[in-house]
């Protein structure tokens, strides 16, 4: 592979000549870094416990992207017990310094290439109407997979305890 070239099917991707990003299953030690990345972004904040718990119980469906051992992106996802053909993306985040380089797209591709996702035919996420980057990410993923992206109502605004949370729309991508 030439310098700067990217192979989305492999475990590594060279984003700039001097550094290599790896895609791994998170370990317990990655939980705090995932939590920190979220705190520095517009994503909903949660306790550090939730990320550590995801690393403990859902590592097979979570991915951390690391550059020089630093977490620069991640996805936390799980397979809902009642829908074994769906992988539900809880959160995906990329460090501000790494955005716009295709990293989130590679993280999603890594996720669905896992052995744990062998029976998966759909990827689902919820997105707020104002999150254009996220909408573009999931629509691009559907385009790449040459499949549909069905947008529908999911979590209404009134479900959230304060007035500050927008509604969350479901993006159901598939079948692929
Ligand atoms: C959403 C996010 C994960 C995208 O990460 P990324 O690595 O920059 O995304 P990619 O480079 O793979 O780009 C994927 C698509 O999104 C588009 N995109 C990326 N940032 C964008 C922005 N700020 N506005 C509009 N489109 C954007 C890209 O152009 C690309 O689409 P295209 O191929 O049609 O041009 C990142 O912006 C982020 O971490 N945001 C804060 C957290 C968040 O909102 N997460 C999603 C909610 S679960």
Automatic annotation (TrEMBL):
This enzyme's EC code(s): 2.3.1.178
CDD domains given in the database record: NAT_SF (cd04301)
InterPro entries assigned: Acyl_CoA_acyltransferase (IPR016181), Ectoine_EctA (IPR012772), GNAT_dom (IPR000182)
N-acetyltransferase domain boundaries: 21-161
EC primary class: transferase
Pathway involvement of the protein, from the record: Amine and polyamine biosynthesis; ectoine biosynthesis; L-ectoine from L-aspartate 4-semialdehyde: step 2/3
Superkingdom, taxonomy of origin: Bacteria
Name this polypeptide is given: L-2,4-diaminobutyric acid acetyltransferase
Organism lineage: Bacteria, Bacillati, Bacillota, Bacilli, Bacillales
């Amino acid at each position: 592979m030439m310098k700067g070239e990217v192979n989305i099917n492999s475990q590594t991707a060279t984003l700039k000549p001097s550094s290599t990003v790896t895609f791994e299953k998170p370990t317990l030690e990655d939980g705090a870094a995932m939590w920190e990345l979220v705190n520095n972004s517009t994503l909903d904040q949660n306790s550090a416990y939730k990320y550590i718990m995801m690393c403990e119980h859902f590592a097979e469906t979570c991915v951390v992207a690391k550059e020089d051992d630093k977490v620069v992106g991640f996805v936390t996802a799980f397979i809902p017990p009642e829908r074994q053909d769906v992988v539900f993306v809880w959160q995906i985040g990329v460090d501000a310094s790494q955005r716009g380089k295709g990293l989130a797209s590679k993280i999603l591709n890594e996720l669905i290439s896992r052995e744990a996702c062998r029976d998966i035919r759909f990827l689902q996420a919820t997105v707020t109407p104002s999150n254009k980057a996220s909408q573009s990410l999931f629509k691009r993923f559907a385009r790449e997979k040459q499949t549909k992206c069905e947008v529908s109502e999911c979590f209404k605004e009134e479900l959230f305890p304060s007035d500050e949370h927008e509604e969350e729309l479901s993006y159901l991508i598939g079948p692929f």
